[in-house]
Amino acid sequence: MRVVAAMSGGVDSAVAAARMLDAGHEVVGVHLALSQSAATLRESARGCCTIEDAGDARRVADMLGIPFYVWDMAARFKRDVMEDFVAEYSAGRTPNPCLRCNEKIKFSALLDKAVALGFDAVATGHYAQVVERPDGVRELHRAVDADKDQSYVLGVLDADQLARAFFPLGDTRKPEIRAEARERGFYVASKPDSYDICFIADGDTRGWLAQRLGEQPGDIVDAASGEVVGSHSGSYGYTVGQRRGLGLPRSRQDGEARYVVGVDAATNTVTIGTSDLLGVNAIRGDHARWCGTAPEGVVQVGAQVRAHGEEVPAQAWASGADVEVRLSSRLRGVAPGQSVVLYDGTRVVGSATIASSWLER
């Protein structure tokens, strides 16, 4: 099988490429250039897509003896991930750029180009497993390493994409991957992992957004009294469930911590309240994506709303591109724009973007 190995320059994608080669596939390494002004060196462990990363990927490819190319997808990444990220925050929602990158870049733009060039599949260093059933249908499952499991951010993949996807690391724990990289003599064996959000190297999301959206002064309102208790420079800098960085003279009232319980982009208002206002047990999602056939009727699932959040037993049912989810217990800090990913045991059923959530008594 002819396979494109997506090589970020990190240890995971290096070992993934090596394992695909060991499995007998014809492998070509591809590094995605996602920045229109790539830095020479990483500024922190969060950053990626630097010239240094491209060089690291090339060195591994040379050691493996496989062809290596850099594919420029900076314009596509800017449009489909970065601009989407800004637009979502501007609208008062909290997006997950990793899901968008997997959906729009790695398993759309990259996979489409690979297939057009005659390749059969794409392999990445994600921690997840593809399990092939006796009837040939491929399913997406959680990784063995629960701490590194990335099935949540792959919940946007559909059946056709899974049919052309390989995740060679899903059956191995991260320390073993680093040990394998050292045994193979890879320079990147001890290279730090990159973290979300990759295009905000210093981790200052609010500052990054402010550079693009400017200052937009507005009110911070107490949910209980309706009183204006503070001001902010842009509601885009806040998300439901946030406790720190509220910029209030008093972070606690009546001895209780205050959290962001609502962001209204239309009025540029941030509403704060006590933790009891955060718990929800009902979610409506749109932009549904199914890792196989869409479920019919009411199904029992596990629901997860953060990449490393807890999985809660739930009931779900689909209606076209919409999904309704009823949780067995309350979840806190569920924000519009996040994704809810549904599981059946370790199998990923699908995902949807959270449009709204509420407490149903």
Automatic annotation (TrEMBL):
Enzyme Commission code: 2.8.1.13
Disulfide bonds: 101-198
Residues that, per the record, bind ATP: 6-13, 32, 125
Record carries keyword Transport: no
Transport found in the keyword field: no
Xref: Pfam families: tRNA_Me_trans, tRNA_Me_trans_C, tRNA_Me_trans_M
Alphabetically ordered keywords of this record: ATP-binding, Cytoplasm, Disulfide bond, Nucleotide-binding, RNA-binding, Transferase, tRNA processing, tRNA-binding
Localisation per UniProt entry: Cytoplasm
Catalysis performed (reactions): S-sulfanyl-L-cysteinyl-[protein] + uridine(34) in tRNA + AH2 + ATP = 2-thiouridine(34) in tRNA + L-cysteinyl-[protein] + A + AMP + diphosphate + H(+)
Predominant cellular place of this UniProt entry's protein: cytoplasm
Annotated region described as Interaction with tRNA, given as residue ranges: 148-150
Site (Interaction with tRNA): residue numbering on this chain: 126, 338
InterPro entries, per the entry: MnmA-like, MnmA-like_C, MnmA-like_central, MnmA-like_central_sf, Rossmann-like_a/b/a_fold
Residue stretches making up the tRNA-specific 2-thiouridylase MnmA-like central domain: 208-273
Active-site residue list: 101, 198
Record-annotated tRNA-specific 2-thiouridylase MnmA-like C-terminal domain positions: 282-354
Function: Catalyzes the 2-thiolation of uridine at the wobble position (U34) of tRNA, leading to the formation of s(2)U34.
Family per record: Belongs to the MnmA/TRMU family.
PANTHER family: MITOCHONDRIAL TRNA-SPECIFIC 2-THIOURIDYLASE 1 (PTHR11933:SF5), TRNA 5-METHYLAMINOMETHYL-2-THIOURIDYLATE -METHYLTRANSFERASE (PTHR11933)
Record's protein name: tRNA-specific 2-thiouridylase MnmA
